[in-house]
Amino acid sequence: MAEIAEGDGPKGTFDAQHLKAIHGHIFQDIYEWAGHTRDESPVVDGQRVEPIGNLSKGGTSFLHGSRIEMGLDEAFRPIRNPEILRGSSGEQFAEIAGKVLAELNYVHPFREGNGRAQEAMLASIGREYGHEVDFTVITKPRMIDASIATTNEPSSPAMKHIFEDAIDPNRQEAIRAAFVDLEMRGENAFEHNVRTARPGEQISGQVLGHDIRVASLVTDHGIVAVDRADLPERLPDDDTVITFTARSDFSRLSRPDQVRNADNPPVERMSP
Q1: Integer Cα distance of 163 and 159 in angstroms
Q2: For the whole model, what pTM was predicted?
Q3: Closest C-alpha among 110, 109, 133 to residue 121
Q4: Name one GO biological process term (predicted).
């Protein structure tokens, strides 16, 4: 996995064969069937195993095994022409990458290890076209929720928002600040759905923590990190619910007067 993250993994043309090669590379020392999709019959412990047709997890059903080849072809359709990503903006990349990952999640081509292989694949695609994808700020509950949302409603922007957060250093900082707030409360941050707010989004929640740059709120749908400038100057010192409309795209955090350095050190985060 580390080799792939550094760009030293299997090379390919970002298609089904490339995904299989990545899966095989990651899991070669764990599964005899690494690199084989679940519609295949690889040999395991000297015995040929049967393909897996029906597959479901947590109440979500995935594409039938007999249609995996077709499903993978459809999943990679948005990037079949590699030029479509060349020179792409962050928003354009997030839109396309979100569609690819949403489809791959539904196809669920491997018996196990789908998430790691797919994330490695999308990170490789991002690197090839100038977008560093950092999945360390994307928690498992958030990825599961996004997968369910896009399976139930393909037009859901949930997966696009994941990539917007994963490629934007300012949004990454905001999410990591929310992680700190959770940890200060004795919570495991990676057991929560943690995301950033979108401009124009109305948010209601209780302030979890804040400093002069970023605040985090507990909402009915998880933890939301927001630009502190979007909130009232005076925040409640208890669990009062506040409602506001997010305005920032977090670009303010990278302005010269906002960047943290020796003359502008980090400020201790506060909680109600």
Answers
A1: 7
A2: 0.91
A3: 133
A4: regulation of cell division
